[in-house]
Write a structure and sequence with these properties.
Layout: H1 17-23, H2 28-51, H3 58-65, H4 69-75, H5 79-84, H6 89-97, H7 105-123, H8 125-137, H9 139-146, H10 153-164, H11 171-193, H12 200-212
Helix pairs in contact: 2-3, 6-7, 6-10, 7-12, 8-9, 8-11, 10-11, 11-12
C-alpha cells in the first residue's frame, strides 16, 4: 500500500445509526447540507482510490459530486480539510454533556469517546481506515495533524467550559484539553499504523488509562 492508494472508498449503506444520530438535531436545510458534504467526501475517496491523492484535484472531486468548485470550497476550505474534518464533533459534545455532572471529566471522556468509537467501528470502519491511512501516508496531511490544527482539543475545551458554567476556559482546562487531545490523536495514529489490526477502542482506553494513572511507572 502506498501513499496514493487507499484501500477503498467508504461504504454508504442505508440504515446507518451514525447517520441518524448526526441528522437528528438538524433542520431540513442542515440535513441537505450534511448530505452534500458527505457526497463530496464520498466521491473524493472514490477518486483517491482510483487516481491517488495528489492526482485527485478539487475540480475532479467537484465534477464527480456534481457541484461547482466554489461549492466545494463552501464545505471544505482545502482538499486536506476534506480528509481531516468530519461531522462527529456535535455527537461527541452531546455525549459528553450527557454524562453525570459530578463525574470526573477524564472518566466522562473515556466513556463517551470509547462509546462513539465502537459505534463508528460497527458502521463506518472502512471510512475511518481510509482517512487515517491517508493521514499516515500523505506528508501534508500528517503535518496538519501533528501541528495540532485539527486535533480534538477544542472539542474537549468546549465541553469543559460548558460544564463549569464559566465564560472562558481556565488555564487548568486548557492544559487538560491539550493532554486529552494528545492521547486521543496518538491512539488513532497507532491504530492507523497497524492498518486497523489493533482494537482502536482498546488503544483509546489504554491512552486514557495513562492519564488516569497520573503517568504512573514513567
Amino acid at each position: 500500500m502506498n501513499a496514493t492508494q487507499p484501500a477503498a472508498a467508504p461504504p454508504t449503506g442505508p440504515g446507518n445509526p451514525i447517520q441518524a444520530m448526526l441528522e437528528a438535531p438538524l433542520s431540513l436545510r442542515e440535513r441537505k447540507k450534511l448530505k452534500t458534504r458527505q457526497a463530496i467526501r464520498r466521491e473524493a475517496y472514490r477518486l483517491i482510490a482510483e487516481l491517488g491523492y495528489e492526482n485527485t484535484t478539487v475540480d475532479r472531486i467537484a465534477a464527480a459530486a456534481e457541484v461547482s468548485p466554489s461549492t466545494f470550497f463552501r464545505y471544505f476550505a482545502t482538499k486536506e480539510d476534506l480528509v481531516l474534518t468530519d461531522e462527529y464533533d456535535p455527537a461527541m459534545i452531546e455525549a459528553l454533556l450527557a454524562r453525570p455532572s459530578d463525574e470526573p471529566f477524564l472518566r466522562s471522556c473515556r466513556e463517551a469517546v470509547i462509546g462513539l468509537i465502537r459505534h463508528l467501528m460497527d458502521h463506518e470502519r472502512e471510512e475511518m481506515l481510509v482517512r487515517m491511512r491517508l493521514v499516515r501516508e500523505v506528508p501534508a496531511l500528517r503535518a496538519r495533524v501533528l501541528d495540532n490544527a485539527n486535533d480534538p482539543r477544542q472539542l474537549y475545551l468546549t465541553v469543559l467550559t460548558r460544564r463549569s458554567g464559566l465564560p472562558e476556559p481556565t488555564f487548568t482546562m486548557r492544559v487538560a484539553a491539550t493532554a486529552l487531545a494528545a492521547v486521543t490523536t496518538e491512539a488513532v495514529l497507532r491504530w492507523a499504523e497497524s492498518e486497523g489490526a489493533e482494537d482502536i477502542a482498546e488503544l483509546v482506553d489504554r491512552a486514557f488509562a495513562v492519564l488516569e494513572d497520573g503517568f504512573a511507572g514513567l
